[in-house]
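Complex 219.
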Amino acid sequence: MSDTADSAHSTHFADLGLPSDLTENLASLGYHQMTPIQAQSLPHTLAGRDLLGQGKTGSGKTAAFGLAVLGRLKVERFRVQSLILCPTRELADQVAEELRRLARQMHNVKILTLCGGAPLGPQIHSLSHGAHIIVGTPGRVEQHLGKGTLSLKDLTMLVLDEADRMLDMGFQESLDAIIEATPPQRQTLLFSATFDDAVRPLAESRLRQPVTVSVESVH
Ligand code: ADP
Ligand code: MG
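Predicted structure with magnesium ion bound:
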């Protein structure tokens, strides 16, 4: 069973109960009001709920999951707590860039990107120094798990961004292998532009009583 979030949520970031340094930084980025997908998802995701989010390009999904990731992060615990999977290196780089902007006022938050097409050596070296948040593509993340250079045993939040595209690109097996390496009690957020027969089994098997948010408008 899943709940559908209503639209009666506040659109003010200040009402989310996020640390004030995070909220003040949002204003400096020109983020004054939440977009609908942010307003409808953040109260639930910050409270620990799983989420199934559908919203077209430009609806602000990155900050929707990014603020949930940052708001629930325990900075003093230097372990990989969040993993964000994206279909392509370009998208992973964009997500990491947005996360770094959002986390600008949070001290010592370590975000690493792990994408295919980049040499393994420097990634292994970076991983040996630790990270709080990994942003990556499924193939490369799976490769690091297989080599033992990445552990997800302390993961508390998994984000599948553009899940439909990841499945279109043939990442089903990598996604399964990665998810099997995470603790079952993790929080899972799944975003997809479409919610068809390809995505539904993934959502139904991997999300627990998710809140469902679907927005059409951009702002
Ligand atoms: P999506 O992933 O849904 O396609 P993005 O997360 O890439 O969308 O966001 C689209 C654009 O909107 C980005 O330039 C981002 O910086 C901007 N944006 C996101 N949230 C807000 C907000 N609350 N206020 C103003 N701009 C925002
Ligand atoms: Mg996006």
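Residues 61-62, 161 surround magnesium ion (ligand 2) (CB under 6 Å).
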